[in-house]
Every structure is written in C-alpha cells, then in structure tokens.
Amino acid sequence: QKEVEQDPGPLSVPEGAIVSLNCTYSNSAFQYFMWYRQYSRKGPELLMYTYSSGNKEDGRFTAQVDKSSKYISLFIRDSQPSDSATYLCAMSGYKLSFGAGTTVTVRA
Amino acid sequence: ETGVTQTPRHLVMGMTNKKSLKCEQHLGHNAMYWYKQSAKKPLELMFVYSLEERVENNSVPSRFSPECPNSSHLFLHLHTLQPEDSALYLCASSQDRVSYGYTFGSGTRLTVV
Fold first, then answer.
1. Cross-chain CB nearest to B40 (options A34, A92, A100)
2. Which of B102, B103, B108, B110 to mutate to test the interface with A (most CBs of A within 10 A)?
C-alpha cells in the first residue's frame, strides 16, 4: 500500500465550477498536511498547509483534514483558467511524503 | 522567479556522458533536497542535506552523486545513466530539516538517450 494515494486524474471542469481534490494516507504519524500547486514547466509551490483535523480557508481555496479517516481534501471555488495546474498533496511527520498529483484543467 | 534556481532547464545526455545539475538557493535555508519527478508517480526523495551534511540517501544508484559545497549550493553529478533515469529533477530547500514548507526550483528536464 502506498503511503499517500492521490488520483492522478486528469480532471476537467468549466470555469466557475468547484474543483474537489483529495488524498488518502496510511501513516498515522503524519501531522502537517499540505497542498502544492505545480504549473507546467515549473516546480511545485506551497499553496496551503494545515495542522491537525479541521478546515482552513484562504480566498477561493479550502483545505480539509480528517485524521480519523486519514483523508484530506482541497476545494477550489469559482475556478478560473489560471487554476489549471497539477495539485500535489503532501504530508509530513519526520519527512515529507507526496501524492502523485492530480492534473486539473479549467475550461474557459 | 523563485528563490531556488536550477540549471540547466533541459539536458539531453547519452548513457556514457558525465554531466552535473546545479541548484542555488538565496533564501538562507539550511536544508536542501534532490527529488525525482516521473509522470504519474509521487515525488521521489533522493538526497537530503542539512547544514551541508548529507543526512539521507534513499537507496539511490551510485550513478547519481550529490555534492553540497556550502549551504547555498547543491549539485547532482550524473554518469553512465540509463534511459529510465529520464525525468524532471527538482531541487528544494527549507528553513531546516523539519520544516514543512519547501521551496522548489523549476527543475531540470533530463532525457537520457
């Protein structure tokens, strides 16, 4: 079993739709949960991070963590074509473990 | 441009060549990392340096050889690579070994022919 599971997609949505991304994990030691965004021909950039279970909102982005279910989510409201990218979840205990990334395309 | 700069951006090399990837960070971070990114696969951690000392080597073949001459620079020396080594090689840095916020460079797209 992989330490972090993430559906690679691809996911295609119309502009203005809500994008829903998620990851599951197996390691109970993970404490910090992150989402990175990676544009084509660029390295990943940290988008959001959370510690422990709950929700965190930042503009159009909401990150959710459910430690009891070992499940994290990222929601993008009112999606824009500029949100088209690959989104990687990452989790940190002693070291950072990444998901495979989900490629998202927002159609104008 | 991010605070982590990688050169070259693209590299094509034969299996008998020797080349080096370079990474430079201007953030005052104390930890630096090499990752391999292949299509549809999670980022694979290759090497970790903390305060210029290699602290992790994740069973990487010896044809990959890292070097960290100071806290701002990281190299990945390549020799006798295989076609399956073709991938995007990413350098990252963080404030320290246990920080969660990594800053990545744009990567070097390596093709082994």
1. A100
2. B102
